[in-house]
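Fold Annotation — chain and its backbone
Encoding — discrete vocabulary of local shapes
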Amino acid sequence: MPATRDEILDAALQLSESDRFAIANRLMETLPEELPGFSEDDPDFGAELDRRSGDTSDAIPWEQLREELRDAP
């Protein structure tokens, strides 16, 4: 019997940060460019982007992110 979504998520959350990052990248690559029900023209989307761009509490330096992206499979 295949694993459920929750079982897969629970297992993934036990992995290292770099492994979770790699899995997230691979999953994102499988999604279409235009997500259903998603619009960049949505005012709520713009407000959320503004909110997130002002929140740098979890930010990492670009150099570090670039290295992580280069090292991702």
User: Anything to note?
Assistant: Residues 7 and 23 are 15 Å apart (CA to CA). Residues 5-32+40-71 form one domain. The chain is about 60% helix and 0% strand. The longest helix spans residues 17-29.
